[in-house]
Specification:
Largest sheet: none
Shape: globular
Order of helices and strands: HHHHH
Structural class: mainly alpha
Distance between the termini: 43 Å
Helix content: 55-70%
Radius of gyration: 16 Å
Length: about 150
């Protein structure tokens, strides 16, 4: 049981790196055409082409659940849950808290909340593919904690 908890926590933490890596090198790289509408709205829909990225990680998460369910990988459930938990945290912070796709957490005003908003605002000041910064989500550079 302890191993599964450790694997869950490590998976969750690795997902921050995966989010940073895929955001910097895939979303702002060869799949920019899917991500561009997140930086510059070119549609009237609530959905964005950028939303397709969550499907990839959902499929990976479900894949680990299936590996566990079919007795192929004992820690598959812990990995799948770690990926799912990170996805839920990412959705909560990015889509709900920062972009207010649902009108929740508007009054969150602690140091961490302000730093996350500042870092993401700096990321979105670049509407093009190049010259981006702050590609992660939950781990925020210290400079954004300053007033």
């Amino acid at each position: 049981m302890l191993l599964h908890i450790i694997v869950f926590i490590v998976t969750f933490c690795i997902m921050e790196f995966m989010a940073w890596f895929s955001h910097k090198y895939i979303m702002h790289g060869f799949l920019w055409n899917l991500h561009a509408d997140h930086h510059k709205k070119d549609h009237d829909s609530w959905f964005e082409r950028n939303d397709a990225f969550f499907i990839f990680y959902a499929v990976v998460s479900v894949g680990f659940f299936l590996l566990w369910q079919n007795d192929i990988l004992e820690i598959g459930l812990a990995i799948g849950l770690g990926i799912f938990a990170y996805g839920l945290a990412y959705f909560t912070v990015h889509d709900i808290f920062i972009h207010q796709r649902f009108k929740l957490f508007r009054n969150a005003n602690n140091r961490y909340a302000k730093a996350v908003r500042r870092a993401h605002k700096m990321h979105h000041k670049h509407i093009g593919k190049e010259d981006g910064e702050c590609f992660g989500m939950l781990v925020v550079p210290f400079k954004y904690f300053k007033k």
